[in-house]
């Protein structure tokens, strides 16, 4: 993986950022830079069939809970250190970020240029920077703030990491115990 990877948050000159861009996964996907805050996205560079492994998650480092980190355990986060950090959220995701296996998998058939999105609560329990969702999916959850704030029904059609499943079970058991007392 190139050591030239730098996450650009506020882009005032997309053309200049694009000209300096060195992809971390050439031929697999690329970043489309857009001016402003949080407007960039990751797109597929080639077709992928539903269920196909797009790439392994490599080069990640242990990190603290931030808006760019990905939760990988009940109390652990990583920084992706690659173009994967530009994957946006969707309630109808095009990819699965499977942090249990450390792979990225096509959730649907993808063609070149398709936006690569994942369901943030699939790995995030309580996000450091919640935001409103405008994905427009039929079952959009409207506010993206982590699985802690969702019911099992709201995530029933999504891939959910094991640590999030466990946290949801613990939360629901605690609520049931409290209710019974």
From TrEMBL:
Q: Identify the keywords attached in UniProt to this record, alphabetized.
A: Methyltransferase, Transferase
A biological process (GO) of this protein is: methylation
Spans through the membrane: none
Q: Please name the Gene3D superfamilies in this protein's record.
A: SET domain
PANTHER family for this protein: HISTONE-LYSINE N-METHYLTRANSFERASE-RELATED, SET DOMAIN-CONTAINING PROTEIN
Give the highest taxon in the source lineage.
Answer: Eukaryota
Protein known as: Post-SET domain-containing protein
- Per UniProt, what is one GO molecular function of this protein? methyltransferase activity
> PROSITE patterns from the xrefs?
POST_SET (PS50868)
InterPro entries in the record: Flavunoidine_N-MTase (IPR053201), Post-SET_dom (IPR003616), SET_dom_sf (IPR046341)
List, for all copies, the residue spans of the domain called Post-SET. Answer: 129-145
SUPFAM superfamilies, from UniProt? SET domain
